[in-house]
């Protein structure tokens, strides 16, 4: 294996049938390579694949549609961005240009270390964060505990709020605002989920149905009454936020969930697993969707080692799902079935956008963001006319991290003197792009 220029420190092998003995190796230079061993009958092995330097463990994002705010989790700090509404919209068939994001605030959790600006900050990396739907609260956690902040965008102020000791002193593996004042907290250690009333500052419910730490949370439903959770052991559960009880266990088959979301109607929970299987679950009937059986993502669209990181839906296109990862977007139309013979294994039509790098997050916007079919519709929206939404197109917001920022986010690699280069240019951390 000649892909590494420095010492190899760790190797992991996937022995499953689908993995086909795929090897993942890492070295002192901080780079990951995916390769397959030399097989009999072949003169040479396939060229190793180098994984992206982008780390989803330290870089995530959440959105507040009501206030057009995006919260970016970036290593040890949080960045709050505002997306202004464009002055005009593209004509029908034209390309839509994303608004230029404006950085409003940079938030650091208080700690013992001193930052470049002289303020106290935590020396630990953030492990989770979330922003409320109305943009008035921000929650964040590192390994020392979880914090809740009140946010005032007009005055550019952040005020820390008190939390119950069970939440404040526990690191959170996942955070999710189920409503403007209701926050779901999945602790890093243990297998419970706390429901926190952010207004009263108390825990109103604790769910103990999981047997392993919870890694994913999703909230939705026609009235926002459901909370879905997935743990590291592969179990997926649904809880009622109205009655505060366990509602159902979702059968997802082999593999653990890597992405969850609700469809545009809010009646179905969409779960994607490590085995690249997509499952739609009817929450009301507590059964799999009657007209859409679990289906596999075609291998020609998604590599074995790739992971689906999120699910996006659009009210204007209820039959479509968009699955996204850190280097691709993949759309499936659940109603447009393939014209196929009996030997075909792909019942649905797919569209792939490949070649993307360092996707931080993708959001299917549930409300119109002025991407109308003509300028007249934009003017109607500004006047408050109800019939303007009929001419709006489905809108998604994709965020990317620049290669320079992804490289700068890695730990400084150990390099022997003979590999060091004199006069190496300094990398500039440009942050996320919209």
UniProtKB/TrEMBL annotation:
<feature type="region of interest" description="Disordered">
    <location>
        <begin position="403"/>
        <end position="434"/>
    </location>
</feature>
<dbReference type="InterPro" id="IPR036322">
    <property type="entry name" value="WD40_repeat_dom_sf"/>
</dbReference>
<dbReference type="GO" id="GO:0000462">
    <property type="term" value="P:maturation of SSU-rRNA from tricistronic rRNA transcript (SSU-rRNA, 5.8S rRNA, LSU-rRNA)"/>
</dbReference>
<protein>
    <submittedName>
        <fullName>Utp4 protein</fullName>
    </submittedName>
</protein>
<dbReference type="InterPro" id="IPR015943">
    <property type="entry name" value="WD40/YVTN_repeat-like_dom_sf"/>
</dbReference>
<dbReference type="GO" id="GO:0030686">
    <property type="term" value="C:90S preribosome"/>
</dbReference>
<dbReference type="GO" id="GO:0032040">
    <property type="term" value="C:small-subunit processome"/>
</dbReference>
<dbReference type="InterPro" id="IPR046351">
    <property type="entry name" value="UTP4"/>
</dbReference>
<dbReference type="GO" id="GO:0034455">
    <property type="term" value="C:t-UTP complex"/>
</dbReference>
<dbReference type="GO" id="GO:0003723">
    <property type="term" value="F:RNA binding"/>
</dbReference>
